[in-house]
Amino acid sequence: MRRLSPAGRKALLTAHLVTSLGWLGADLGLLALGVAGLRGADPEVVYPAAALLVTWLFAPLSVAVWLIGVASALLTPWGLLRWRWVLVKFALTTVMLGLVLLLLTPRVRHLGALAGAADAHLRIDLVVPPAVSTTLLLVATVLSTWKPWGRLRPPARRSVPAGRAG
Ligand code: HEM
Questions:
Q1: What single DSSP character describes residue 103?
Q2: Is the distance from the beta carbon of residue 96 to the nearest atom of ligand 1 less than 6 Å?
Q3: What is the pLDDT of residues 22-61, one digit of tens each?
Q4: Is residue 35 part of a domain?
Q5: Ligand 1 close to Cβ of residue 73 (< 6 A)
Q6: 84-99 and 128-146 helices cross at what angle (nearest 10)?
Q7: Structural domain boundaries, residue 109
Q8: 3-class secondary structure for 9-63?
């Protein structure tokens, strides 16, 4: 795989940080709206706002984080399958992307359409999933900075060209 220039790598890392931590921020925004809805804030305001947030920010950021995260692994010496912290983040983000696109986004949009007519069961959908995903994103952030657990397999040894050994 082709590696990036130092400037290219910094640009990619900047994009990775802005999108992934932006994703965490959008998630906290959803959680705040969910808690406000349960605590009696006007559902005609809170749930349509959550539907807009999920449609135009949270769901698109999920795709961007996955794509830019994978590029950050494949285009740098970290690789996608070399270090445990990268692989665990990749798995977490992939599961989250599926849940966000297939479950959370349709449910929150439904909640936005119902607004004041939403029952307590549906309202919980804007509290529990964002609380779980915020926790997962905090785990991903800690993994990124501490980079625990080492390599999955030892580095490949460069083969020595014939006649140069010894
Ligand atoms: C597909 C999922 C992801 C993959 C494959 C991935 C991979 C990577 C890689 C390889 C780096 C190092 C980049 C470099 O040194 O140039 C990195 C850095 C980082 N990632 Fe991710 N990432 C993913 C998702 C996330 C998520 C969801 C978060 C947090 C919400 C996150 C937060 C960070 C942070 C804070 C750094 C900077 C660490 C440092 O420079 O010491 N990443 N990521």
A1: I
A2: no
A3: 999 999 999 999 999 999 999 999 999 999 999 999 999 9
A4: yes
A5: yes
A6: 160
A7: 6-146
A8: HHHHHHHHHHHHHHHHHHHHHHHHHHHHHHCCCCHHHHHHHHHHHHHHHHHHHHH
Type of residue numbered 132: V
Q: Is residue 27 domain-resident?
A: yes
Domain-located, residue 156: no
Q: Is residue 104 part of a domain?
A: yes
How many A from CA of 127 to the centre of ligand 1?
26
The CA-atom distances, in angstroms, between 83 and each of 65, 152, 154 are: 19, 5, 10
Please give the distance, rounded to the nearest whole angstrom, from the Cα atom of residue 68 to the centre of ligand 1: 9
Percent of the chain whose predicted confidence (pLDDT) is above 70: 92
Say yes or no: CB of residue 133 within 6 Å of ligand 1: no
Structurally, the chain folds into a number of domains equal to: 1
